[in-house]
TrEMBL record:
Similarity comment: family membership: Belongs to the universal ribosomal protein uL5 family.
Coiled-coil regions, chain positions: none
One annotated GO molecular function: structural constituent of ribosome
InterPro entries cross-referenced by the UniProt entry: Ribosomal_uL5 (IPR002132), Ribosomal_uL5_bac-type (IPR020930), Ribosomal_uL5_C (IPR031309), Ribosomal_uL5_CS (IPR020929), Ribosomal_uL5_dom_sf (IPR022803), Ribosomal_uL5_N (IPR031310)
Organism: candidate division WOR-3 bacterium
NCBIfam families registered for this protein in UniProt: PRK00010.1
Protein name: Large ribosomal subunit protein uL5
Gene3D superfamilies, per the entry: 3.30.1440.10
Length: 147
C-alpha cells in the first residue's frame, strides 16, 4: 500500500492531481483519492474533503514495484545504508516512510512540479517479524547490518 497525505490539498485541490499523476507513474496503477474522516477546524478541514491518494498493489504489479524500489529507488535515498530492522509491526508487516518521490527512476527531476513524501506499507502473510524479514530479504530488501 502506497499512501500520500497532502495537507496543502485543503487550500489547493489541484495538488492532488499532480501527486496522483506521479504515483500513477511510479506504481503503474491509478490511485484513489482519500478523504477526511472528520472535520478539524484548526486545519480548516471539513469531513469528506480530499486530502491524499493511495494505491494498493497486488500480484505482479506489487512484485515489480518492490523490485524497482529495492534495487533502483532505495539506493538513491540520501545517506542510505539499508533499512532498519525496527520497521516491522510485530505481525509480519513492514511500514516505512520516504521523504521525497525523486528517488524513483520513473520520474524525471526536471518535470517534477511538487516534491512530496509517501508511506509504504508491505503487508505479508508471515505471522512474525523474523519470518517477514526473511521473506523481504529474499525479495531483495536491503537491511542495515548490526544495530
Amino acid at each position: 500500500v502506497i499512501n500520500v497525505a497532502a495537507g496543502e490539498a485543503v487550500s489547493d485541490p489541484k495538488i492532488l492531481e499532480i501527486i496522483a499523476e506521479d504515483i500513477a507513474l511510479i506504481t503503474g496503477q491509478k490511485p484513489i483519492i482519500t478523504r477526511a474522516k472528520r472535520a478539524i477546524a484548526a486545519f480548516k478541514l471539513r469531513q469528506g474533503m480530499p486530502i491524499g491518494v493511495k494505491v494498493t498493489l497486488r500480484g505482479d504489479r506489487m512484485y515489480e514495484f518492490l523490485d524497482r524500489f529495492f534495487n533502483f529507488a532505495a539506493p538513491r535515498i540520501r545517506d542510505f545504508r539499508g533499512f532498519s530492522p525496527d520497521i516491522f509491526d510485530g505481525r509480519g508487516n513492514c511500514s516505512l516512510g520516504i521523504s521525497e518521490q525523486i528517488i524513483f527512476p520513473e520520474l524525471e527531476a526536471a518535470k517534477i512540479k511538487k516534491v512530496f513524501g509517501m508511506d509504504i506499507t508491505i503487508v505479508t502473510t508471515a505471522k512474525h517479524d523474523d519470518e517477514a524479514k526473511a521473506l523481504l530479504e529474499e525479495l531483495g530488501m536491503p537491511f542495515r547490518k548490526g544495530r
